[in-house]
Amino acid sequence: MNSLDHRLADGSSRAGVLKVLRDRGDLMRVEDLAEAVSLSLSAVRFHLDRLIADGLVRTSKEPRQTPGRPRVMYQAVPAEAVDDGAAYRHLAILLADELAGRGGAVAGEAAGRTWARQVLGTQDWPTADGSGEGESSRVVPAPRSLAPGRAAPVGRRRAEMIESLPDCLPNLLRVLEDGGFAPQIVDGGWAVEIHRCPFADLMPHQSEVVCSVHKGLMEALPELAGTGECVRLDPAPEGSAPCVVHFVR
Fold first, then answer.
1. What is the pLDDT of residue 37?
2. Structural domain harbouring 137
3. Mean pLDDT of all residues belonging to the chain
């Protein structure tokens, strides 16, 4: 939850008032706000007072060409001015648009491969010969069939099953977990479902670029780790989930 969400956690009606102001973008009268959110004038004024105190809404006087007391108008403060996360999301959208304009999916895959090189260069990772320091080099994640609470094969059968896992599975899982992708092993360890996209805010704008960056990242991991395996990313059709990473046998 970002700082803006924390400020709005005490009332969905207040969040609704702010959303209408953000969507409109310009100055609004309290009467128009009340109609838009289906609340009483007193309730909307209460929420506006809290939003102003939190620095999320500002006021201005209504321009008048005739004598009389000008009305108070309300306008949302830009999200980037009050929430660092919103500023970074805006920057990410701009960069994704620029990447799409300069090379589309090809440029996205190249960026993903650069990402993979940076990730693998920051810490010790398991390699094809099992070398490398740290816990990740000594732990091979069990597939779903070996997860706690499930019947697990014993003896030689269990050893053979673990040895048959893709060599790059630990690398891939670590990257996905650290990156916030919420991975889940399926197909006995030969596929990984991705249940969360950390760049979901970019998807409505540049889904092709986002998916191509992920494709470059995941396909580069086995090559850079020296395991010699092939990885294929199958993005989920729009509106469905999850995406799936397959190790090609």
1. 92
2. 84-248
3. 76
In Å, how far are 9, 76, 80 from 59, measured between CA atoms?
A: 23, 9, 18
**Distance of CA 202 to CAs 59, 89, 191, 235, Å?**
31, 8, 25, 15
Q: Would you state the pLDDT for residue 152?
A: 39
In the chain, the amino acid numbered 214 is H
Q: What is the CATH number of the domain that holds 71?
A: 1.10.10.10
Taking each helix axis from N to C end, the angle separating 41-53 and 30-37, rounded to the nearest 10 degrees, works out to 110
Task: Show the 3-state SS of 108-140.
Answer: HHHHHHHHHHHHHHHCCCCCCCCCCCCHHHCCC
Report the candidate in 73, 52, 59 with the shortest Cα–Cα distance to residue 7.
Answer: 52
Q: Are strands 243-248 and 230-234 parallel, antiparallel or unpaired?
A: antiparallel
**Cβ–Cβ < 8 Å for 140, 165:** yes
Residue 131 gets the label, from left (phi > 0), alpha (psi -120 to 50) or beta, of: beta
Interatomic CA distance for residues 73 and 79, integer angstroms: 19
Listed residues 54, 79, 104: the one ending a domain: 79
Q: Note the pLDDT tens digit of each residue in 17-73.
A: 999 998 888 899 999 999 999 999 999 999 999 999 988 999 988 777 777 778 889
**Is 141 found in the same domain as 22?**
no
- 32 and 127 co-located in one domain: no
133-153 pLDDT per residue, tens: 443 333 334 443 334 334 334
Domain end marker among 79, 95, 118: 79
Token pair 């959303």 is found at: 19
Higher-pLDDT residue of 2, 214: 214
